[in-house]
């Protein structure tokens, strides 16, 4: 079983040894927004949603639960989930779209902390990373800061509830700025640089993706139907899980994940330390780094648009057994790219590099319809991915293709748009739940079905379709992408809050 806790939903999925999906259950998760730039989640409610998903997936599968050999999870990186030593949540979990600590990050950039840390961690500091959020809590919510017994990423919190054992898994924590990436271990000196040295005692023991990190407890077995005593693997950051589920086991492919976050990445034997990309972290395959350009600028913007402006249509279609996403696809397909001139900046949760940026529709006039706006949303999201991809291409240009996952990969219209904008063939994988599949690959290793994550990926991954770019459309999108970059660069000076 793979369990995936993302930015908007949680899922539990059962797979066979060849990577074929047997059964899936999911729950949408409630986002709590106490004020602007703050996104949180009730941790007990999150756990109960996971319990419901696990039990439902097993019941839907019609298999004997004793056939389940192992479990692993993945989840959105960054954010912050604090527990006391007794396991009770300290406060709401903080989700990776949170931007409250932006001013703290800018101060670290001004005072030299960011440069000093980069030499050890090879990554920029983000407002949504645990280091920034912990520093914010220390300054504005000291009782929560002092009460922290365990500092978890979301999937590590769920694994803790499954097993009663606290561990930190390396792919998640190496993207948090809590870990000394150069040494592959925690280092109090780095915590002291951030002014949060006292949190060292709350960092769980460090494990790898395929390490056994406990076993399903009796109480959890009763709640979920998972067999008591089966192993739970360390699991991985969801961007690793999606990559490994797309058979990214060598440096030949860029991987794009269009979910709540725009994730764009490839793997290499050495980190990129010329400051041209945002993040280097430890990959779930030993001796590889995951080179990442990312921001909260992807399909989460479409979810926002649907919730704000298409709720009536969504309800009506749902009553007919139809999908709001298919409806959006049809509207987008009804207009050619050359016939749509609105530029959308998909910055509902901040821009690629500035958490204080705001979303915009630019160039609206009286003839524009709902179809124009939705196409603008689709295009703006792809353009934001392309900003990241250009930075990756600056360091490596001999990619064979781009492998696409996330909500956009379920849309033929959107997949074609990715091909046309990037100019690369787009490969989609034959799997609906890539994060859960990647996690299940780790589970397959701890139960002995596979020797390594790489061998699991070769066995359990199946490429479905390849979509080729259309040169005439690529030329049109290049002009629009140029306008997109001019607009967001021109507005950048307005967004800074201090």
């Amino acid at each position: 079983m793979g369990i995936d806790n993302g930015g908007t939903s949680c899922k539990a999925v059962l797979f066979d040894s060849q990577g074929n999906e047997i059964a899936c259950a999911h729950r949408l998760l409630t986002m709590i927004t106490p004020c602007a730039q703050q996104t949180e989640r009730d941790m007990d409610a999150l756990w109960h949603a996971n319990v419901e998903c696990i039990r439902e997936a097993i019941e839907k599968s019609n298999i004997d639960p004793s056939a389940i050999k192992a479990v692993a999870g993945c989840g959105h990186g960054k954010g912050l989930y604090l527990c006391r030593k007794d396991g009770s949540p300290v406060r709401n979990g903080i989700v990776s779209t949170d931007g409250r600590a932006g001013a703290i990050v800018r101060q670290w950039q001004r005072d030299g902390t960011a440069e000093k840390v980069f030499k050890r961690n090879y990554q920029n500091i983000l407002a949504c990373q645990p280091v920034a959020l912990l520093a914010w809590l220390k300054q504005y919510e000291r009782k929560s800061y002092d009460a922290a017994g365990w500092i978890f990423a979301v999937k590590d919190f769920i694994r803790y509830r499954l097993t009663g054992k606290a561990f930190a898994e390396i792919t998640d924590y190496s993207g948090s700025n809590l870990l000394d990436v150069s040494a592959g271990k925690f280092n109090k000196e780095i915590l002291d640089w951030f002014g949060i040295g006292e949190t060292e005692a709350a960092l769980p023991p460090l494990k790898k993706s395929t390490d056994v990190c406990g076993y399903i407890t009796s109480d959890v077995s009763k709640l979920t139907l998972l067999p008591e005593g089966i192993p739970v693997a360390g699991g991985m950051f969801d961007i690793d899980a999606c990559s490994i589920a797309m058979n990214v086991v060598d440096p030949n492919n860029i991987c794009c994940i269009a979910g709540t976050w725009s994730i764009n990445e490839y793997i290499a034997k050495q980190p990129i330390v010329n400051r041209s990309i945002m993040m280097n972290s430890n990959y779930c395959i030993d001796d590889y780094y995951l080179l990442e350009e990312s921001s909260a600028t992807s399909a989460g913007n479409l979810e926002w648009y649907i919730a704000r402006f298409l709720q009536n249509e969504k309800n009506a279609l749902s009553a007919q057994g139809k999908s709001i996403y298919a409806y959006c696809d049809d509207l987008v397909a009804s207009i050619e790219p050359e016939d749509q001139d609105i530029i959308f900046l998909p910055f509902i949760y901040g821009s690629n590099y500035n958490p204080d940026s705001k979303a915009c529709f630019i160039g609206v006039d009286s003839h524009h319809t709902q179809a124009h706006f939705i196409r603008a949303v689709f295009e703006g999201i792809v353009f934001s991915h392309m900003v990241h991809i250009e930075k990756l291409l600056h360091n490596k240009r001999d990619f064979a293709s781009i492998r696409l996952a996330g909500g956009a990969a379920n849309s033929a219209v959107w997949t074609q748009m990715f091909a046309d904008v990037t100019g690369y063939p787009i490969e989609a994988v034959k799997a609906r739940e890539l994060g859960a599949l990647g996690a299940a690959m780790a589970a397959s290793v701890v139960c002995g079905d596979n020797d390594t994550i790489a061998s699991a990926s070769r066995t359990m991954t199946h490429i479905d379709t390849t979509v080729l770019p259309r040169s005439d459309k690529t030329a049109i999108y290049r002009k629009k992408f140029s306008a997109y970059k001019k607009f967001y660069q021109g507005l950048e000076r307005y967004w800074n809050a201090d």
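DSSP finds 18 helices and 24 strands in the chain. The first strand starts at residue 2 and ends at 5.
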